[in-house]
């Protein structure tokens, strides 16, 4: 069994590593929690355990994980139906675009890209992202991280 991951991203290269680990994760709109007063976005997900797959396991397992962005100034979504909280979204990846296209600037926009054109754009003071595994997703069901904080 692979150890549970806890990854932190403070720049675009770090975020590319996290993006690889969340590729093909399943997300429900009800597990996307925007805490504007805390400048935080938390996304609960069921992600594939890519390490287990690379280790030769025949059946990839899913892990429940939380993806957290801090120091978020604004959060906007496109083509995500918040009225269908149980609909499953497939996360394709995450990108970071520095403010003004200059890497030396700490701020910018993080884009969470979903299949079928869905997206979440986060305008951030600086990039602070964390991916934490919470356990195995034995039933392949929704994440349900209401108390996450």
TrEMBL record:
Domain of life: Bacteria
Pfam families: DUF2948 (PF11164)
Protein name: DUF2948 family protein
Annotated source species: Bradyrhizobium campsiandrae
């Amino acid at each position: 069994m692979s150890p549970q991951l806890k990854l932190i991203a403070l720049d675009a290269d770090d975020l590319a590593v996290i993006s690889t680990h969340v590729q093909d994760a399943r997300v429900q709109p009800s597990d996307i929690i925007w805490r504007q007063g805390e400048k935080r976005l938390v996304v609960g997900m069921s992600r594939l355990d890519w390490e287990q797959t690379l280790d030769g396991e025949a059946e990839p397992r899913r892990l429940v994980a939380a993806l957290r962005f801090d120091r978020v100034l604004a959060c906007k979504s496109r083509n995500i139906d918040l009225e269908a909280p149980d609909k499953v979204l497939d996360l394709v990846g995450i990108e970071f675009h520095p403010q003004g296209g200059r890497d030396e600037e700490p701020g910018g926009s993080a884009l969470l890209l979903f299949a079928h054109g869905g997206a979440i754009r986060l305008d951030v003071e600086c990039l602070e992202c964390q991916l934490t595994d919470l356990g195995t997703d034995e039933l392949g069901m929704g994440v349900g991280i209401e108390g996450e904080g």
